[in-house]
Amino acid sequence: MTHKGLKVWLDSRMVRYEDANAPILTHSMQYGSGIFEGIRSYGTDDGTAVFRLRDHVKRFLNSAKIYSMRLGHGQAELEAAVKKVVKSNRLGDSYIRPFAFYNDDNIGMSTKGKKVSTYIAAVPFGAYFGTRREKGLKCKVSSWRRINSEILPVEAKASGNYANSIIAGNEARNTGFEEAILTSMDGDIAEGPGENIFIVKDGGLITPAVDSDILVGITRDTVIKMAEMEGIQVEERLVKRDELYSADEIFFTGTAAEITPITNVDGTRISRGPGRITRALAGQYSDIVHGKVPEFDGWLSYV
């Protein structure tokens, strides 16, 4: 995919994608010291809308706080910039990537005094897992453990954190699976490389709690609120590995993944396809992001 011709927001200016350059020795490329967000926009009957923009920008700013990065941009400015990028590129369904990084080519690891740059790009985007979003994923519980807050701040979406995700995902794909599931240092189920995870059991939902070293996802929160509205019980607690194998249904949630079923874990078939509750929640989620559920219209920011 080429992004040539797209317009991006870089340090308060709109520039062409190919003109948004940084030194090859940029600190954040060398050391993974950048922070980012993943946001989506969707086409609706009333035009393009960004889903839960306020919450994503708030988390972006919180990541900057955790890493002591002075962005020089506030909530309102960043929200406006996201909408401007989507509108300037005339996008409907898109993936939006705000990214803040140390725009400095000094070899040293210290970030003191280094310039921080922020860019926002948006690209056309469909189903992250392709047809697997309908058929279901075959997942492997990784031999790699999920990082915890004694190692790195898991509440922040920091670039370096995702080296953990990449190595787990590579292991899964190299052994015939399509995605990984990571466990905490205590062996409890945590999350996927870039997704939260839910189990359906006896008509209710179970999902790992914050003490499982998860990133508290915005799509995860959306699913919990949707389920509660539908009268589906949700438990947030420690989840043991063997609970995956006896689950009625399992699914991932995430900005990119949306709601994607998991039909096989470690070679154990969970279901033959998306289960009833997974299908119902995925359908409702699609309706919400496409502006078809008035009760949730407050989550849509129209461009």
Structure description:
- The protein has 303 residues and is an alpha+beta fold.
- The chain has two domains: 118 residues, 2-Layer Sandwich (D-amino Acid Aminotransferase, Chain A, domain 1), CATH 3.30.470; 158 residues, Alpha-Beta Barrel (D-amino Acid Aminotransferase, Chain A, domain 2), CATH 3.20.10.10.
- The protein is built from eight helices and 17 strands.
- Strands 8, 9, 10, 11, 12, 13, 14, 15 and 16 form a nine-stranded mixed β-sheet that branches.
- α2 crosses α3.
- The longest helix has 14 residues.
- It starts with 6 loop residues before the first strand and ends with a strand.
- The model has no long low-confidence stretch (mean pLDDT 95).
SSE topology:
Blueprint lengths: L6 E4 L2 E4 L10 H5 L3 E2 L2 E6 L2 E5 L1 H14 L8 H14 L5 E9 L13 E9 L7 H4 L1 E9 L16 H13 L4 E5 L5 E3 L4 E6 L2 E5 L9 H12 L4 E4 L4 H4 L3 E6 L3 E8 L2 E2 L6 H14 L10 E3 L1
Parallel strand pairs: 8-9, 8-15, 12-13
Antiparallel strand pairs: 1-2, 1-7, 3-6, 4-5, 4-6, 5-17, 6-7, 9-10, 11-12, 11-14, 14-15, 15-16
Helix pairs in contact: 2-3
Tally of strands: 17
The CATH class of the largest domain is: Alpha Beta
**CATH topology description of the largest domain:** D-amino Acid Aminotransferase, Chain A, domain 2
- What is the N-to-C succession of helices and strands? EEHEEEHHEEHEHEEEEHEHEEEHE
The structural class is: alpha+beta
User: How would you describe the shape?
Assistant: globular
Number of helices: 8
CATH superfamily of the largest domain: D-amino Acid Aminotransferase, subunit A, domain 2
As for the number of domains, it is 2
How far do the termini sit from each other?
25 Å
Report the major sheet. 9 strands, mixed
Strand content: 25-35%
Low-confidence stretches: none
Mean pLDDT value: 95
Please give the oligomerization state of what you see.
Answer: single chain
**Architecture of the largest domain in CATH?**
Alpha-Beta Barrel
Radius of gyration: 19 Å
Q: What is the helix fraction of residues, given as a range?
A: 25-40%
